[in-house]
Amino acid sequence: MVEQSSATNEIWAKDLTYKHAHEVEPSLINISFALPKGTRTILVGANGAGKSTLLQILAGKRLLTQEGTDVRIKDKDVFRQYPPGVTFLGTEWAMNPVVRGDIVVSDFLNSVGGYRHKDRRDILLDILDVDLDWHMHAISDGERRRVQLVMGLMGQWDVLLLDEVTVDLDVLVRDDLLTFLKSDSETRGATILYATHIFDGLDTFPTHVAHMHLGAFVTPPTSWPFSDVTAHGCSPRLYNVALEWLKKDRAHRRELERNGRKARGANKSEVPSDSETFYRKYDYSH
């Protein structure tokens, strides 16, 4: 149950169910949660659990049509009244052909307002170890990701939605970035919701941890570190908590597959598929 109301929480969702298309199963099922201002929440879940879909909805990238659903940031509808001060950073940015063009990083950052945020921009340039003379088309995915983070974080955001954006960073830069984000959140009361599969070094970062499985919350945002470790059946290290949760998720999914859910993995049938029959017929490698 969502506590209090949208007016007393920075991020708030009630009865959120979402389908990518009418004929498919819901990607999110009856999601309700509330995050107070200044919290830092880690979203834990396997691939396909619904983390990215939830973040995209909060970022105003998907229209909600389900009757009764209400999703708000700063007490404003995330699609129709999108509030200022919200930053979403996802993995798709680095694949955009525009940011892979032959443009110098200094010019790129100035083109998106870097000159207006010089102090914070310069701090981030040092933390993320970015060379202003890099050419965007000639750098690695990890270096391009660093430029994205400078661009997205140099303004004074109030709510930060992160979807796997640290996956390309080396461990030193990632640690420096998380230290900056934690300090920024504590100093300014900014709110962070962060979906990641990398849990090393995160034990002291979050104020809350949440667990998603098959489109629903198994554990809604809960204060971290857990006050009763034994109740969650795992150690106080976030890596171990996440590992235990994901093992249980996989076991539950496989149980559903044994009871009729479409299975993943190898095709156990001895009858060859149509494609296997076709390609075997024209296989001249022997």
UniProtKB/TrEMBL annotation:
InterPro entries: AAA+_ATPase, ABC_transporter-like_ATP-bd, P-loop_NTPase. Residues 256-286 are annotated as: Disordered. SUPFAM superfamilies: P-loop containing nucleoside triphosphate hydrolases (SSF52540). It holds the Pfam family ABC_tran. SMART domains: AAA. Residues 277-286 have a biased composition (Basic and acidic residues). This is ABC transporter domain-containing protein. It comes from the Eukaryota. Keywords: ATP-binding, Nucleotide-binding.
